[in-house]
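Contributing new complexes? Match this layout with thymidine-5'-diphosphate.
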Amino acid sequence: MGSFIVLEGIDGSGKSTACAAVAEILRSEGLDVEVTAEPTHEGIGAFIRSGAAGRISQRAESLLFTADRYEHTASIREAVSAGRVVICDRYYASTAAYQSAKLDGDSADMAWLRGLCEPFVAEPDAVILLDMDPAVSLDRVGARGEEESKFENLPFLRQVREAYLDLADAYGFEVVDASRPAGEVLSDILQIIREVL
Ligand code: TYD
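Output block (do not edit by hand):
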């Protein structure tokens, strides 16, 4: 059996960079590591990313993210059963945190969101929340020169952050202060992962 590690956090919190860095280090130690992400880049995930669904309610969008997760979960289980270390950039907490936050006055309630994926999700060995003030993370996203997505505005991301912290309490996620220098953040993440490998 391998392991299943999830990194969560608001946009610009450094998840993707951390996933790649952690994978490189663990691979150099001889581990078989797979990095994956949600939304996925295939099928339903690609459909979500394309924006073709248009402006839909937070609930309808939650169902799309959940459908993508359902398909993705089968491949995660397969990789973990084959002995691989799977590092996943976002999983069920992203839907709970983002789609419960008010976007254009619309939000889905947390109990409904938490219930959506409960019947099928793979239980992560660790969920690591990269926590930081969205004012700082938005600066980082801006510095990358990326186009702002509809999710990237300060009041919305403040709600997402609060929802993440509540979820961390409820589910026992590991919370890492991601506003510190990248090296320190990476070393905390590695320590958490090594404890569960
Ligand atoms: P993101 O991790 O930023 O992907 P990338 O770095 O490849 O662009 O995810 C894209 C957006 O999707 C991000 O703003 C968060 C949002 N999202 C949700 O709202 N709910 C979800 O369940 C997931 C997985 C992502």
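Reviewers usually confirm one structural detail per submission. For this one: Residues 108 and 196 are 33 Å apart (CA to CA).
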